[in-house]
Fold:
Amino acid sequence: GEEVAQTPKHLVRGEGQKAKLYCAPIKGHSYVFWYQQVLKNEFKFLISFQNENVFDETGMPKERFSAKCLPNSPCSLEIQATKLEDSAVYFCASSGLRRGNTEAFFGQGTRLTVV
Amino acid sequence: DAKTTQPNSMESNEEEPVHLPCNHSTISGTDYIHWYRQLPSQGPEYVIHGLTSNVNNRMASLAIAEDRKSSTLILHRATLRDAAVYYCILRDEVTGGSYIPTFGRGTSLIVHP
Structure:
């Protein structure tokens, strides 16, 4: 497709429950990025993929967060045993090339609320 | 990583031009200057990018200083729909560089009717 599709738009989980978010990048894009936006304006980079390979996971909280991008499937970000502080909007972006002169396209985000 | 600094907020009146500044004094020769904006309750949206020369597209213009240590995003006639947070970021042209779009705090643009 011509846009990055994120599902679901909203997700509510009780503390300790699992949350799974999905992202379908633009067809043909090799790079996928996940971000967490907790406070207004502040983005935290989580992880990036080049096709199905993890490219950079320096921002991922290793204990409870995991992510995958498998062939012919949407990418996913999973949070095991959610905590209140995981409440945020999670954005996915895709990019065709790992080059500075290409733009990244963002999805509309998934708002995760942990109660 | 090269970083950018922007004012926290700016205000404008509808139909007037808006100049949004960005400082990037540690920019490298291979960094492209990108601008994104985030409308309320939406994901970031690409606006424009450039390397050295000024750039124009249907959304905005980008003026880049000769020494490339600063740039200005120009909205020629602000509309209420332009009220958003505007982010100036740097992306490295060279593979292996800082290719990850890294967002600072951005500038919240308020447009008055």
User: Anything to note?
Assistant: The mean pLDDT of chain B is 91.
